[in-house]
Amino acid sequence: MATDHSPVRGSDLDTVAGNGLVHRRMFLMAGTAAAASIASAALPNPAAADALQVEPWMKLPGSGFVGYGQPSKHEDKVVRIWNTAPGTIGTGTSRTPHHLLDGMITPNGLHFERHHSGIPEINPDTHRLLIHGLVKRPLIFTLETLARYPMESRIAFIECAGNGQLLYQKEPAQAGVQQIHGQVSCAEWTGVKLAVLLQEAGVDPKAKWILAEGADAAGMSRSIPMEKVMDDALVALYQNGEHVRPANGYPMRLLLPGYEGNMNVKWLRRIKATESPTMTKDETSKYTITLPDGKSLQFVLPQEGKSVITRPSPGLTMKEPGLYEISGLAWSGYGKINKVEVSADGGKSWAAAALQQPVLPKALTRFRMAWQWNGGPAILQSRATDDTGYVQPTREQMIAKRGTRTIFHSNAITTWSISDKGEVKHVYA
Amino acid sequence: MSTRNSLLIAVSALALISAVAVAADGPNLGRVATPEEIAAWDVSIGPEGVGLPPGSGTPKQGETVYLAKCVACHGEKGAGKPNDQLVGGQGTLPGDKPPVKTVGSFWPYATTIFDYVRRAMPYNESKSLTNDEVYAVVAYILQLNGVVGENDTIDARTLPKVKMPNRDGFVTFARGK
């Protein structure tokens, strides 16, 4: 498609990998080149729709104030999608529309959800947090007392351990980034370090675990290693500046940066210090990885290094050849993202993407890559490396190691194919 | 003079002590929980069965509870549909066909069944069963899975001793392995 008349002819210097991956400076050059090319061409009359107008909203005062603002009505497609268990309205998962978002923070109304018995309507005045078990002084906290403690903020992703499970399927699911990878979101969480509360209670050195329990009808509960709790667990009261949303644990939830979503217990009501794991339903029968030999890996706690291209992705059809930005998200439950590489030729060649600042440990990291699409077929992939040196595996590598008898902790490279019509499809490379 | 000095020393010492106390303990705004309060909330049951309440049940009693409260979601005799299958699937964990994970084929601890049923079931009215009913329905599910006999009684003493078929089927994860 690229011809001698193309305004942004890629020179060897600007090419960073095969099939059109180019240096980001091409965005600037494209602007000047395109402007020059338009100036030198005969200017056609703009189509009526394109003609500059003085719009009606420039002639009348706009609408008034509202108590809690909402997105533009033109953005009504930017919503979560969900599945529920048979016979229930609130047990299941909703997914974040990452293909329609940018940046690293997920808006509160679009944060993914996983509920095991719906969203409880909790009265914050009667909600209590009990800390007991192997402690000297068992303590009860109200929301009011917790709010008087020194707070900390932490930008962290939360990812359901089942996110990406469609990649274990034999055939590529005909689905997009929301359906396949929508069970990860990222927010600024603010609250009280659980270590401070546990120190006040006086933890017995014999206590190597805690049990965390929610106040929902399922009494969702998980065991968590004390080491993690003392390191960076937060009793989060705020999410992106406002009180945690009911769907995300109002009035308080546990935040365990990097650990599988299920352990970040919402509607937190009880912490029990214990010698060993309680062996709850979720940490035995559910969130374990069954291997080909029938044995199951238990306590697979941090989420592995991972990335996905969010744009372009299925549902976002490319209109015409030209310069595009490939954009996506990368994250690791073990630390910071060090590098994200992008390929447009199915993994034959790779180029390092730009990482949007800030790059924070255990937070979503936005990456960006310039791409001169020539209008031909392309196979897009991204591959993350975290600061422990861990490199995101291909689907083949993941399945060689884990098999397909599990739905959890899928972190393989996701592949989008672009047709010569610009349609984007999920494929296996 | 000496009184004033000792007072000064005492005051400084006190200030030092309280500063240390504050630094070590934080604001200390929690109220001490009474044993009764804890007992009312502490519903989790670990694999050793500590905290299992008084009461008991048999598979036969459990069948009555099951037919009244569980069969609509979990099917006849725990066969599943529309929700989780509770019975069968033993021997399906390795191999090429998808594993059938049930209480009998997969759950490593019988105490977990008591813990989970008491806190979360029946779905539409959780925490509504009596302890006897929970013991009974646990006994019924275990008996359907061939783990206990028809005439066995399940209570705080017997439940932790039940060895589940997949008890040794779990390996603690270590990264890189």
Could you describe the 3D structure shown?
The complex is a heterodimer of chains A (429) and B (177). Chain A is built from seven helices and 26 strands. Chain A has 429 residues and is an alpha+beta fold. Among the domains of chain A are: 113-286, Alpha-Beta Complex (Sulfite Oxidase, Chain A, domain 2); 306-427, Immunoglobulin-like (Sandwich). In chain A, strands 1, 2, 18, 19, 22 and 23 form a six-stranded antiparallel sheet that branches. In chain A, strands 7-6-15-10-11 form a five-stranded mixed sheet. In chain A, strands 8, 9, 12, 13 and 14 form a five-stranded antiparallel sheet that branches. In chain A, strand 20 and strand 21 (351-352) form a beta hairpin. In chain A, helix 4 crosses helix 5. Chain B is mostly helical and 177 residues long. Chain B has a domain at 48-161: Orthogonal Bundle (Cytochrome Bc1 Complex, Chain D, domain 2). Chain B contains six helices and four strands. Chain B has helices at residues 2-25, 35-41, 59-69, 71-74, 110-120, 131-144, and strands spanning 31-32, 56-57, 154-155, 170-172.
Across the major sheet of chain B, the strand order is 2-3
Kindly, what is the distance between the CA atoms of the first and last residues of chain B, rounded to a whole number of angstroms?
72 Å
% residues in beta strands of chain B: 5-15%
Low-confidence stretches of chain B: 1-5, 7-23
How would you sum up the global shape of chain B? globular
Mean pLDDT of chain A: 93
Q: In the CATH classification, which architecture of one domain in chain B applies?
A: Orthogonal Bundle
* CATH class category name of one domain in chain B: Mainly Alpha
- As for the CATH topology of one domain in chain B, it is Cytochrome Bc1 Complex, Chain D, domain 2
